């Protein structure tokens, strides 16, 4: 049995609306190139070690770099996730992603957004805040430096929350302003209270146990080796790797 990965016709049909238009010379076969890009990201290979069945490795890397810079892979995930249909519950959390020395070496260019890599107790890391639905499928996610607090992720994701009844989160999201923001959106918070609180916060412990689905989601994303370990210096390209993993794992 071959270890190669190939996108099916049905999967290509779902992805094609998000492809950029080809100008001038026709692109190399989309199915072959995208299948090779997925295999590289899932298995953590260097581009030069791409199996020959996918064509020349430079064609794979050039497509990956060009489409990542344009945000194509992020738009694929956002577009497919837009049809989630969730009406009841969403979950919010963040996970650390280890940065390889090739991603954290050398200073970022002046005037740029930075690498979005920070030093934590576990070393050099990036952080992935995310929202998922009740089935554990990612609805929205982005990358920050590892030392950034969960509150920053909560502020960034707040406006993208769908119209649902409940939001589940751990004590890292226990802030009065966040609870008020959820109340304004008519979303009930099921968030455990911080130990520093003088008054105990009541929450539905039975419902809270369902929050493990977002942890499972992070685990499945980290099955992709170029997500679990960040090799890319550019945060936009690394976010493309995360978005591609989310798209193939949960939305195709």
Automatic annotation (TrEMBL):
Biological processes per GO annotation: DNA transposition
GO MF term list: DNA binding; transposase activity
Residues covered by the Transposase IS4-like domain: 86-243
Residue ranges occupied by any Insertion element IS402-like domain in the UniProt entry: 7-77
PANTHER family found in the cross-reference section: BLR1914 PROTEIN (PTHR30007:SF1), PHP DOMAIN PROTEIN (PTHR30007)
Name of this chain's protein: IS5 family transposase
